Amino acid sequence: MIITNTMDMNIFNASEEKIMQDIIYGLVNSVIDGDTFIIKGTEASESNKNKYSKWERIRIANIDLSELKTPGGYRDKVKLESTIQGIEVSCSVQSRDSFGRVVAEVELL
Fold first, then answer.
1. In this structure, is residue 80 part of a structural domain?
2. Among 9-13, 34-38, 65-69, which range has the highest average pLDDT?
3. What's the distance, Cα to Cα, between the start and end of the chain in Å?
4. Is the distance from CB of 94 to CB of 61 less than 8 angstroms?
5. Containing domain of residue 38, as a range?
6. Are 87 and 1 in contact (CB under 8 A)?
């Protein structure tokens, strides 16, 4: 399953362009909000020139859901938790945002 911008989270409409082109793998440790979570990294692709840490905050690319303090924010967080909490994921890295989060396309393994 690939994380998506639809409520049922089955189809991901992502950009073809990858800026950093790394892939990192890990277990989802916690969910911060509807489009951001923390993984405990288990592996990175050979091109891991960007030196990812063991714990990374991942922002799902091409999704913009409600912040926790806004209407629907808690619902979005719970939906993401029920989908990925404790699951191993593959993150195709695009970039880092201004908050230092890894922005990536995310696939459940």
1. yes
2. 34-38
3. 7
4. yes
5. 23-108
6. no
For residue range 56-75, list pLDDT tens digits in order.
Answer: 999 999 998 888 999 999 99
Q: List phi, psi (to 5°) of 74.
A: -65, -40
Residues 6+ apart with CB under 8 A from 89: 25, 26, 27, 28, 39, 58, 106, 107, 108, 109
Burial class (CB in 10 A: 0-12, 13-18, 19+), 58: buried
Q: What is the CATH number for 84?
A: 2.40.50.90
Please report, as a single letter, which amino acid is at residue 1. M
Give the count of domains, the chain: 1
Please say whether the beta carbons of 75 and 9 come within 8 A: no
